[in-house]
Specification:
Elements (H helix, E strand, L loop, with lengths): L1 E10 L2 E8 L7 E6 L5 H13 L23 E9 L6 E12 L2 E9 L10 H12 L3 H7 L1 E2 L4 H6 L2 H11 L3 H34 L9 H9 L5 H65 L1 H137 L3 H69 L1 H6 L29 H52 L2 H7 L5 H13 L6 E2 L2 E2 L5 H85 L7 H70 L5 H8 L5 H28 L9 H62 L6 H25 L4 E4 L14 E4 L6 E3 L5 H22 L7 E5 L7 H16 L3 E5 L3 H6 L2 E8 L2 E8 L2
Parallel strand pairs: 3-14, 3-15, 7-13, 13-14
Antiparallel strand pairs: 1-2, 1-4, 4-5, 5-6, 8-9, 10-11, 11-12, 15-16
Length: 1084
Amino acid sequence: MKPLKLVMSAFGSYGGEEIIDFSKIKGGLFLVSGDTGSGKTTIFDGIMYALYNKMGGGDRETKMMRSEYAKDKQKTFVEFTFEYTHGENKGVYVVKRTTNFRKSGVTSDVVLTLPDGEVFNGKNKETDEKIQSIVGLDYKQFGKIVMIAQGQFRELIMENTKNRKEIFKSIFSMDIYEKIERVINDRFKKIYAQIKDNNLLLEENFNTAYVSEENGNTDAWREAFEKRDTEPGLLLDVLEQEIKELEIKKNEEKKIIDKKNADIVKLVKRISDADKINSKFGQRKEAVLRYESLMEQKETYDNKAVILKKAKAAGEVRQVQSVYIKTKDTIELREKQLEQNKSKFVLLEQSHKKLLSEKESFEKSYLTDNEKLLKEKNRLENEMEKYKVYDEKNKLYILEEKKLKELKEKSDLLNDEKKAALIKSEENKKILLQLKDIELELQKYIAADENEKRNLKEFEALKKAIASYKKENSRLDSAEKEYADKYLAWKEARKTYENTSDRYVAAQAAILAAGLKDGMPCPVCGSTNHTHPAAMTKDTVTKEELDGAKSKENECEKEKNNSQKIFEDNKRKKDVAFAEVKRYYEICYYLGDKADTSLKDKKGYNTSLKDKTDTDIKEHENIRQQENIKDKEYTSFGENKTDKLEENVKTKIKEIKKSLTENEQTIEDLYSKKEEKLKREKAEKETEAKLKEMEENISDNAEMLNKQSVSVGSLSAEMEMLKKELSYESSDTALKELENIRNKIEVLEKRKRELDENILKSDRTKSNLNGTIKENKNQLETDRKNLETEYDDFIKVLKEKEFENEEAYNESLVHIESIEIFDRQIQEYKEEVSKVSSLISVLDDMLDGEKEIDTDVMLQQKAEMEIEAERLANENEITVSKLGTNNSVRDKVSKLMEQRGKLNEKYKIISSLNNVANSKKIHFQTFVLRQYFNMVISYANKRLAVMTSNGFLLKCRDISLTTAGETGLELDVYSPVTGKVRDAHSLSGGETFMASLAMALGMSDIVQNNSGKTQIDTMFIDEGFGSLSDDVRDKAVKILLDLAGSSRLVGVISHVSELKEQIPSKIIVRKDNDGSHITWVQDR
């Protein structure tokens, strides 16, 4: 990923819209420089926010990023354009994230534009996931590899294994190894649990098995049970023996039970045969009793048969009687209808006479009333045309009168507006007169404010130079002490070496004498007779001791020379710092002397500072005149004087800041007044134009008002003349009267038609009713003749069915509804008698020669035999149960032992794997990460060796050297010079930064080399260079230049002034009253 452009609007300290075009960078390395709080780090916050909706620093939240300098309508957003130059994500991407600040809270919307120009279609969460998949890094990975924020340098170096493991897990994908650890541990727990369950089941089954004391297996069983873990097969042997003995016992018991059951079956058959004979004797007794009961009911059923016969005859007679009764009912109905029709005819006659009388009376008045109404109707219809003309003129009059009213109202409104505009114009002119000189006053305050800002900037520079000078002076003191100690140590080592050398030379004769042999010539004098050879003494020095003393002297000399170099370097830096303080003294003096007079008068500018600082400088320059180390003199400020000078400068800065605050408030007020003046001038011009337009409108309206008054008066006169010719006040009233007359005519016509229709209808009804009466009389005569014939038929049938009279017939007619019931009861009775009689006859044949048998003795014998059989069966059931239990236990134990063997084999393997993967000392994940860690360290050391001149390198700590707790990712520092190893926590601030930078670059290299998808072409570093010496900083910058030159983009935030000279591409961030602003600077 390579940044192309960043746009920030109302974000952080940037009040407006700022655009950073990264394509302007030459060489790939650029510096972001500016005052503290100016908004340097916000640039990188913007990138993090666009990509991940989070800030770069952990202490900054999204809701804090709305700029306090932004205007109300200015939207807060960040738009980040970046590019992938190769791979599956190749192309240019644009991410725009907008923050919405509402009362309910802070929300953000994100839009992702893909290389083809299309906008990614998805919700915020889906778009965030898409962006992360394109970048190839999550928020934590990006912050560790691409963007190293303030305060995160030490994390890369000082973390323990647990925390460093979490950092590396977020960078290098450890999912598969974590899954392996989890799977192995889960399988280990599962197999361990299975073995535990197996043990429980074995114990449970062994305790369930039945072993009898009677057969002597109890002792063997107890012994085998005690050896169940060492000799599990022994238990199965004992159990097999017990099963065999139980099988024999079960078979013997089965034979006895079978014989007992056979005897019971024979006895049961005898009892059954006796019960069958006894049952038939019982059935015959019941049948005889039932037959006797039926014979007692015979007379009752004979009477029912007589009643049944009479009822059936009455039913046949009733069929003939029903015809006679029907005809009789019809005659009664016809007589009643005839009487009703006669009554209706009388009423119709009366009604018809009344209608004729009404018609005669109506026709007398109809002709007169109708003629009068028709005449009035024709007159009104002719007059309606005049009403139509009048209504049209009336409508026109209303419209014209409305226009006249509107013109009058408009005239009043225009006059009121003119008066209000004149009053407002007068008030505005008075205020404009008061604001006449506001621009001059504003320019005066702006000029004064710029002078104060220049003063503040130079005094702050002086303050910084004093602090730098004090720091360098303190370092010089430490270096001076260090050099003095090393110098004394070297002199002592040299003295020791010279003394050792002298003793070594003196001891050479004794060393030669020790090698002399009689008869051999002396290598010094040539004599073969060695009478008084030199002897070794206690102070004799060996060659090894001499070499050791020389090595110690050389080591001390090297340390002395190094400390001397550091001392001289610190002295040079202190002199530079002193010159810087002096330079800013002169600048501040010049500004104090030449500052704007009006501002001095206004703010009480203190011009006496120059005399005070001159005196301080002279005193500081003479502080160390009398100190002399190795004949080298140097001068330095004294601490007391420096503190006093620094206090004066701080006081001055405080005064200037207070003055600036007051001045800026005044400027803000003046700007407000200036803006008010411009608004009022504009308003005055608008008012003048408006008054002119009002005058024209008033004149035009007056002319239109006169014309409209004349038109309304003419229409009113015409309407008055026309109204005199009309009968009614309005056309509506005349039209209503015309409708009333027409309705009256219609009512008369309708009444005439109704009378004619009613008379005609009455004639028809009378004629129809008269015919109906005649028909009723004829039908009644015919029905009476039929009634006589049908009565004769009824009497004839009554005699044929042997009924003495109608009374006897009616008595039998009562039972006609019970015919079916009696018929069924008689039939069922006859069948029951026949059935019982047949049963008695059959039973007599079956029991011929048989007697009843007493079965109580046999039943008693059977009960005793069954109790015995049940006892034997229970005993056998217990034996079978024991046998079944033992067989089941044997099968289960056999399977469990087989399972146990397999589980033990698996447990050996998985236990070994689990000890490796989930060791308390080092986990499998940690082991894999350790390889990555060593690779990162290897890449880091290549750059660290250059930055430190092989002063120190990084090393992954040997696992054997660690103590308790999780380990494997600890970091140590190795010195190639001494060959010694120390803890990384012992690194100084500058060393920590160098090591952190090297590690970050190393991680970037590893991720780049090991990921086909993730493309890291960018790195940002926020602060840290201030802790480096000049030569180390030069080397670090060279490494970053080389890195950037290889197609990467590297951004550095720093206050170190030397970096401005070393890095040609710079983003200068400045902050003023309307927020932060960005300027590109390219030196070469």
